[in-house]
Automatic annotation (TrEMBL):
Superkingdom classification of source: Bacteria
Protein name per the record: ABC transporter permease
Organism name: Pseudofrankia asymbiotica
This protein's record includes keyword Transmembrane helix: yes
Keyword Transmembrane belongs to the record: yes
Keywords: Membrane, Transmembrane, Transmembrane helix
Segments crossing the lipid bilayer: 21-42, 57-76, 97-122, 142-164, 171-188, 227-251
Length: 256
């Protein structure tokens, strides 16, 4: 099969169930909804705190939902045995798995863009007097860059799904990694803060909030990160691709 055919097949397979639609809707609705609630209830005297960076405070909700969707995209194939048919139709497992990863990552990126831009636009519509204009590169990055973070995170999620191949186990491992491990490491004396600065999701978060005051005030990312904004995104992407290479390499050797 050609690359375009593989991508089309994976798109059809992904949308053959309702779960991707529910995940996409929930990711956008929850992210935009929480931000709209903040904009609607903020006190007039605090409108100066409602900035482009503030409108993205809830992006992690949709971020986690889309990673769960990415895991299910691969683990359900193993659960129902359809991965065997995929590998019979496409003997080169690498091509099939990369096509699936590309489709899932692109979808996650589009959802991230819709959530990020939607949260900012609705906040601006609700509070037009707030300082929500996109005046510089940092403002554009924290709003438009959400889609890039979603995209790279989806690659990580697919990789975890490939490695574990069980929906509940993969989702549990992901949530422990993102919500527990990366947030609790600073509690380790001496080395905790240093290690946290090199963890992929913490570094990916720095891509959005580097140079933004909200990140410092709300502890969105540690201070003195090793990379700047775009360096953080590159590091996040390299880690994701390395994890994907490991997962695909193991998938070639393991029974479907």
């Amino acid at each position: 099969m050609t690359a375009l055919t593989l991508l089309k097949v994976e798109r059809i397979k992904l949308f053959s169930t309702r779960s991707p639609w529910w995940c996409m809707g929930a990711a956008v609705f929850i992210t935009v909804g929480f931000t709209a609630l903040l904009a609607a209830t903020i006190r007039p005297g605090d409108l100066g705190d409602l900035t482009p960076a503030t409108t993205q405070f809830s992006y992690n909700f949709g971020f986690l939902i889309m990673m769960v969707m990415a895991i299910l995209a691969i683990t359900t194939e193993y659960r129902f045995g359809t991965i065997r048919a995929t590998f019979l139709a496409v003997p080169n497992r690498v091509d099939a798995l990369l096509a699936k990863t590309a489709v899932v990552a692109l979808l996650a990126g589009l959802v991230g863009e819709a959530a990020g831009v939607g949260a900012w636009a609705l906040s601006k519509a609700i509070r037009p007097e707030a300082p929500l204009a996109l005046d510089n590169a940092q403002d554009y990055r924290v709003v438009v860059g959400v889609g890039l973070v979603y995209m790279v995170a989806a690659v990580v999620a697919v990789s975890i799904g490939l490695l574990i191949r069980h929906s509940a186990g993969a989702i549990t491992a992901l949530l422990i990694w993102v919500l527990v491990a990366e947030n609790l490491l600073p509690a380790i004396p001496r080395v905790g803060d240093t290690i946290q600065k090199w963890l992929p999701f913490t570094v990916g978060n720095n891509f959005l909030y580097a140079g933004q005051q909200v990140g410092q005030d709300n502890d969105a990312t540690p201070t003195n990160m090793p990379f700047g904004a775009w360096g953080s995104l590159l590091y996040f992407a390299v880690v994701a691709l390395a994890l994907l290479a490991l997962a695909v390499g193991l998938a070639k050797r393991r029974d479907a």
